[in-house]
Specification:
- The protein has 106 residues and is mainly alpha-helical.
- It has a domain of 67 residues.
- 58% of the residues lie in helices and 0% in strands.
- It has 2 helices and no strands.
- Helix 1 packs antiparallel against helix 2.
- The chain is rod-shaped, with a radius of gyration of 23 Å.
- The model has no long low-confidence stretch (mean pLDDT 79).
């Protein structure tokens, strides 16, 4: 193999290493935040069907919508959310099967 081929192989390896580093170091945190954001959004969307009996439907719909809007406005960019405050992702089998009571009263 000539010197030109070695340079070409080295260039391809360097570009591959740079692309891999970019994928994991630059895009990894963005993908992780997106996964967390989607999961929180799904949890918030699931609240729409869990209206407490003592809350009128219109008020519950407003509260759930306001909460979703708050989440989208405050957690849209990964820089706005401190990673230490985010809960660790749970595997589906570890999630609780029953939720605690959510209501407006005591």
């Amino acid at each position: 193999m000539g010197r030109g081929r070695w340079i070409a192989v080295a260039a391809v390896l360097a570009l591959s290493a740079a692309a891999t580093a970019f994928w994991f170091l630059a895009l990894g945190p963005i993908r992780e935040h997106r996964h967390w954001n989607d999961r929180v959004r799904a949890d918030l969307d699931s609240l729409a069907d869990k209206r407490p009996v003592d809350v009128p439907p219109g008020q519950w719909e407003f509260m759930v919508g306001w909460t979703i809007n708050l989440h989208l406005n405050s957690a849209a960019a990964r820089q706005w959310v401190d990673r230490r405050l985010r809960p660790r992702p749970e595997w589906p089998q570890q999630r609780p099967t029953s939720r605690p009571h959510v209501g407006l009263g005591p």
